[in-house]
Amino acid sequence: MERHVDQELKELKEDILKMGALAEEAIFKSVEALKNRDREMAKSVIDHDVAIDKLELDVDEKCIDLIARYQPMARDLRFITTGMKINAELERIADIAVDIAQRTLELVDKPILKPLIDIPKLTTIAQNMVKMSIDAFVKGDILLAKKVLLSDSEANQFRDVIQRELIEDYMVKDASTAPRAVQLLLIARFLERICDHATNIAEDVIYMVQAEVVRHHPEKLK
Amino acid sequence: MERHVDQELKELKEDILKMGALAEEAIFKSVEALKNRDREMAKSVIDHDVAIDKLELDVDEKCIDLIARYQPMARDLRFITTGMKINAELERIADIAVDIAQRTLELVDKPILKPLIDIPKLTTIAQNMVKMSIDAFVKGDILLAKKVLLSDSEANQFRDVIQRELIEDYMVKDASTAPRAVQLLLIARFLERICDHATNIAEDVIYMVQAEVVRHHPEKLK
Q: Do residues B55 and B16 make contact, with C-beta atoms less than 8 angstroms apart?
């Protein structure tokens, strides 16, 4: 038999999926704007952030309301509190897309420094990690969550390679590239921070699922 | 008459104060390590982070447990969920202190680039913002929370000045300074991110207090 609360928990999942889709879109557009030197697209990422902030508050409010009305125990409660955390992470991810869009606006009218080869790769990793981490939450899939954690070291490596290249092959060799190289270096770091947020989501999912397992199987504690 | 739950809410406040003290200590030590080129102190910040992570999980678990056992309504519930958010912010602040300590380890055996004048100033702002935001939570003091929000633009300005100076007066004028200047630029950005987390805390406090006001005064909705 389906409980009333189940319908609302399903809606919470849908809200998180929507927040996830908006965050992914913001990441995608911010890097497309960078690649295509598209000032309008960069601005649209910045402008759209208000709507994401608004949705975050709505989802947060819904979660508190759900807890107050249903007074859920163990599993449902943990699902809702995890949803609140993931909601906040997704809002932060969208904020970072705004940071990328702002750096992009600094770069669009300056000569291209390099073909950005590794930044799109890091972007793909970041997008996949965000997508997988949300899937892991919606499905309660601990294996998928662990896959996200494994991707994070790859993201760190990409960031470090990009950073080293920008410092040693550009800034040190030709000081005039420094202002542009710093912007790209920051963008690489922003992308890696998106991966960190996806990692936080994945860790929250593992914690949600395992705490539940532990609760139901006290022999697994220790 | 004091309710049982009041004692536990008081303990939650104490836990958040403790998390705050640990986060502030981590910020302080990470910048002291930078100022004094103190490798051991930088390492101690990195090593101590495990204990902060552990306390964060404990506090989070306590909050979920509080909700499950007392099924608190409106005001208490909102206090607990805000506590969970602040707890997470403080853990992130400590993580950023680790980032500062790691950048410091890259710098300790290289020649000093500049006397760091503005980085300690930005550090003081960051420390004050963290302290004020936690006080605002513990006291439910919305005016103090708003003061934190006002400080954030000052922090942004300091970060921008430091960044511009490092790029234009160092990297562009003497390319050999780039590797060290990038580390300092990142540290300035880390400190500003700490201010952002304090801002998040202050916003959560305002939201906690105002939502409550609105709930008790439906005429104020609209």
A: no
